[in-house]
Amino acid sequence: MKTFISTVIVIVLFSGCKPERFYTGDPKPVISKVVLNQSTFKQFTDTVVISFDYVDGDGDLGYDNADSLSLEIKDVRFAKADYYHVRPLAPAGSQINIHGTIKVTLKNVFLLGAGSSETTKFQIRIKDRMQHWSNILETKTISITK
Q: Which terminus of the chain, N or C, has less C-beta within 10 A?
């Protein structure tokens, strides 16, 4: 009987303890696991879909204002990145740990040179409302063809 009661106490004590495996303890966002929908794209025809996981310790990713651009995606062939709007990913005013996946659709990949194919990669990072930038992720190399 003593063993049974001890077992029940241990189960009760630990059943409420569910560690958040995604919690970073840091208000700076962290991104990981970047995935592309394919590795070869026909210029001006195929759509590039990039998805990646995010974690933010205080839940301040995304903006209400559609003119606020907080997602940076850079084709490494270019000097400048493109920026995208991310809607708020947690209720306004809350400070909660959030995690999930963001999926971005890019259109119109194209060849820069006169050849029939090129390769490139994309670099991605995201900024929260406190202006903290995440780490930078880089996709695998893709091919763009005519």
A: N
Map out the domains of the chain as residue ranges: 23-145
pTM for this model (two decimals): 0.81
Q: What pLDDT is recorded for position 108?
A: 86
The number of CA neighbours under 13 Å toward the Cβ of 72 is 18
Tell me the two tokens of residue 126. Answer: 């995201």
Pairing of strands 40-42, 142-145: parallel
Give the neighbor-by-neighbor strand order of the sheet with 40-42. 40-42, 142-145, 117-120
Closest CA to 77 of 45, 46, 122, 114: 122
User: How many angstroms separate the CA atoms of 43 and 89, rounded?
Assistant: 32
The answer regarding whether domain 23-145 maps to CATH 2.60.120.10 reads no
* 3-class state of residue 92 by DSSP: coil
Tokens of 122: 């994309």
Q: Which two tokens stand for residue 61?
A: 């990713």
